[in-house]
Write the C-alpha cells for this entry.
Amino acid sequence: MPARSKALLFAYGTLMRGYARHAVLAAGATRLTTGSVRGRLVGLRGFPGLVEGAGRVSGELYRLDDPELLARLDHEEGYNFVRRRAVVTLAGGRRARAWLYRYRGPRARALEIPDGDYRRARPPAGRGRATRPSPGRSPWR
C-alpha cells in the first residue's frame, strides 16, 4: 500500500513525542510534521482534551503504518474521547485530513490551555521543566 493512502492521525497531547503514552502511537506510526486544528484545548488532570471552539490547537501529524493501531488507540483513549476526522493545517500551510480524538466528557474541573499548545503548557519530562506543577500553581499557565 503506498504511503499516501495510509490514514493520518493528529496528536495534540500525551500521544506526542516525549510523553508517556507516545509509545502506543510510535509502535505503529511515523511522525510526519507539526500542524494545528481548529478548537480549544482544556487541561483535565494530567492530560488535555480538544473541544469545539474558536482558536487553534497545536500538535503532531502521524502516518498510521499499522492497520490495527486505530482500534488500540480507541481503546486507549477511552469513553470520554471520540475519534473524528478533521482538517489539519500543516506547518508549511498545506492541509490534510486526519483522525483526532475530541473530548466529550465532563468539563466542570477543566482548565483552558489558552494558546492551545500542550507542549508549552506541560513540557515532557527532561525538557527543562517538570511535568508536575508547583504547589498552588495551575499546570496550564
